[in-house]
Amino acid sequence: MGKAYYTPEGKASRAKPALSFFDSDMKPRKTVLITGATDGIGRALAEIYQKRGDRTVLVGKRALDALYGALYRKDTYCQADLSRSDCADRVRAFLNAQRIETVDLAIQNAGIGYFGAIADQSAESIREIVAVNLIAPLRLTHALAPHVKKANGKHVLIGSVAHAFPRSDYAVYAASKEALRVLGRNLRVEGDMHVQVIHPGATRTGMHRKIGWDSERAKGFPPAERVAQKIARAIDGRRAVVTIGWKNAWGRFLGRYCEGAINNLMRRGTM
Amino acid sequence: MKHAVITGAAHGIGKALAHRFVRAGYAVTGVDVDEPGATIAERELDARFVVADLRSDAGIAHICCELASTEAIDVLIHNAGINAVGRFSDVSLEDQAQVVAVNFCAPMALTAGLLNTDRFAKGASIVFISSLSHYTSYPGAATYAATKSGLASYARSLSVALAPQNIHVMTVFPGATRTAHARRYSPNNAREEKRMPPETLADHVFRGVKKRKRLLVPGFGNRIFAHLGKYCPCLMEYAMRKVILEKL
Ligand SMILES: NC(=O)c1ccc[n+]([C@@H]2O[C@H](COP(=O)([O-])OP(=O)(O)OC[C@H]3O[C@@H](n4cnc5c(N)ncnc54)[C@H](OP(=O)(O)O)[C@@H]3O)[C@@H](O)[C@H]2O)c1
Ligand SMILES: NC(=O)c1ccc[n+]([C@@H]2O[C@H](COP(=O)([O-])OP(=O)(O)OC[C@H]3O[C@@H](n4cnc5c(N)ncnc54)[C@H](OP(=O)(O)O)[C@@H]3O)[C@@H](O)[C@H]2O)c1
Question: How far apart are CA A162 and CA B74, in angstroms?
Answer without folding.
Answer: 30
